[in-house]
Specification:
Mean pLDDT: 94
Distance between the termini: 41 Å
Strand content: 15-25%
Largest sheet: 7 strands, mixed
Structural class: alpha/beta
Strand order of the largest sheet: 7-6-16-17-18-15-19
Number of helices: 17
Radius of gyration: 24 Å
Oligomer: single chain
């Protein structure tokens, strides 16, 4: 529940911290970023050259920031606002420090490249109150009308511990969990690749649910049902049951679902601070230069058309009708935008890459937050001594309810519901207030003596990412058989493998990564694209700090046969 690590894995202080760098491409992006030689340089003749960066989310801003440091002039296009799915919003009429995270809200310590930038801009993090985590005062698990109050998993009925044990046994028996986790912790790249190559061959066509059903540990339907509704780490995972088991293994191997932390003040501060940051080590540009100053404070507007023009250049038309042509460009938005919102030239990518984008499977996701006068849930019930209300996992419409506060005497926030896929689609036709009413009714059935509504001090804020026009979904999640498609998209930055007339436009963003839905994937693919642009301009990394493309042939993702 609070950890996916079987007891067989022994963690020692001497071991390297685990990092979300694989297993498909076990490259140490954190070491690359921390190296004193920097991540590369370009010839002085290319200094000041413009490069289009399409999308001002985390991936786009990281890519633009690093290109600027190299001496290039990134031109950022953003349809909405800087941040992408790092979106932090306030509540009208409430204290501006009271915020809600509409997108990414919790980050694992294994996101080590992400942490580099969090530290760089001086942001703080704090433990996130996931179910049964040490940061959570109490958790209520409510299934089939029966509620259980717990501070640790030991407070739950035995069946929940049986389910956790079944999951750990399933991972151990079907996916060499201890061996892989140890190899990743020790950054033993040959061993990682050896284990993963066998599993990709074996499991690419398998669903998450099928993987559970094939395990003797999960022969009980009741156990599978409870696991789907309650899950591990962050809550229920039944919405992922149709997805490829490889997607799930990437999460558990890298401990992406464990020990989460939130960014104090909101995650959107990260791209916004990078946008304003004036790096002390910068080439070509004078000290005091920032992305903001290069753009006179505002990025270019939405891209409406992309074409490939003479000289193998990329021509960008924006929403104002402005047309600019670049020798290189990076696209960081959801790939479906290239199929719908943006008029694209077929010559931008090889046909098999277009196919991979068309096959990309996105998960839906919805959230609704309300501001409240104080963290009243910490009040004690006089009869039971329990918290008045708890972080709640349920099979009712709300599914997951999170309680977020900054101290006993300050206003607080409740995430009344966080849902995915079919559970998210159930909310889609409802207005924010209609959503809130349904959620309060569901929670009222769990907490009949708690009047949540009387504590609400402002209007609800909500998002359904599948209904956001510049996103069309929350994050990619591969279906069985999609490994080949993902490999094409992830390896696109290695453009010496592409036809000469299909180079110059680079893909980045978490949906291009192997770890979609995690900000770490956005950072890693941004760095891949930066390496690709640098190489296109005749640049190179320092010999003591090879980049992801320099070592590609040694650690390239498994290549499955097409026939």
């Amino acid at each position: 529940m609070t950890s996916t690590v079987p007891n067989a894995v022994q963690h020692t202080d001497a071991a390297e911290p685990i990092t979300m760098f694989g297993p498909d491409f076990p490259y140490a992006y954190d070491d690359f970023l921390a190296h004193p030689a920097g991540i590369g340089q370009i010839p002085a003749t290319e200094h000041g050259t413009e490069v289009a960066v399409i999308g001002g989310g985390l991936s786009g801003i990281v890519a633009a920031y690093e290109l600027m440091k190299m001496g290039l002039r990134p031109v950022v296009y953003e349809a909405d606002e800087i941040g992408g799915r790092l979106r932090t919003v306030g509540f009208d009429g409430c204290d501006p420090q009271l915020t809600a995270e509409m997108g990414a809200m919790r980050f694992p310590p294994s996101s080590t490249a992400l942490q580099h930038y969090i530290d760089l801009v001086g942001l703080e993090t704090k433990p996130f109150p996931n179910p049964l985590s040490p940061a959570t005062p109490s958790t209520v698990v409510d299934l089939k009308g029966e509620s259980h109050y717990a501070r640790t998993i030991d407070d739950l009925p035995q069946v929940y511990r049986d389910v956790m044990d079944a999951w750990n046994r399933c991972l151990e028996e079907g996916a060499d969990f201890s061996d892989m986790n140890r190899a990743m912790r020790e950054r033993d790249v040959p061993r990682i690749r050896e284990i993963w190559a066998k599993l990709v061959q074996k499991l690419d066509n398998q669903t998450f649910y099928g993987f559970l059903c094939d395990s003797d540990a999960f022969k009980s339907f009741r156990h599978r049902e409870i696991f789907g509704q309650v899950g591990f780490g962050t809550g229920g995972w039944d919405t992922d049951f149709p997805n490829s088991i490889l997607e799930i293994l990437r999460v558990v191997y890298t401990e992406a679902d464990d020990h989460h932390r939130g960014i104090v003040g909101g995650s959107q501060q990260l791209p916004l601070r990078l946008w304003e940051r004036e790096p002390q080590k910068i080439v070509h540009w004078p000290l005091g230069t920032s992305l903001s100053s290069l753009h006179n404070g505002e990025p270019r507007p939405a891209v409406t058309r992309l074409t490939r023009t003479a000289g193998n250049r990329i021509t960008v038309t924006d929403a104002t009708g402005d047309i600019r042509t670049y020798p290189a460009a990076i696209f960081t938005g959801q790939s479906w935008l290239l199929l719908s919102k943006i008029d694209c030239d077929d010559a931008l990518f090889p046909i098999d890459h277009w196919t991979a984008m068309e096959r990309t499977h996105y998960m839906e996701s919805s959230k609704l937050f309300v501001p409240v006068d104080r963290p009243f849930w910490l009040d004690k019930d006089e009869a039971t001594g329990r918290d008045t209300m708890s972080m709640t996992l349920t099979d009712r419409m709300t599914r997951g309810t999170y309680l977020l506060d900054d101290g006993p005497d300050r206003p607080a926030v409740i995430c009344l519901s966080y849902t995915w896929c079919d559970d998210s689609l159930k909310w889609l036709p409802l207005s924010p207030n209609e959503r809130m009413d349904v959620m309060l009714k569901s929670l009222g059935e769990i907490y009949p003596d708690v009047d949540i509504r009387k504590h609400i001090i402002g209007n609800p804020v909500t998002v359904s990412w599948e209904n956001e026009p510049w996103f069309m979904g929350a994050f990619k999640a591969n279906l069985p058989g999609h490994y080949r498609y993902q490999r094409r998209l992830f390896t696109h930055f290695m453009q010496d493998r592409l036809p000469a007339d299909r180079r110059g436009l680079f893909l980045a963003g978490d949906d291009i990564s192997w770890t979609a839905g995690w900000a770490e994937g956005a950072v890693q693919t941004a760095l891949n694209a930066v390496w690709g642009v640098m190489t296109r301009f005749g640049g190179a990394t320092d010999a003591t700090n090879p980049g992801p493309g320099d070592v590609f042939d040694d650690i390239a993702p498994v290549e499955l046969p097409e026939d």
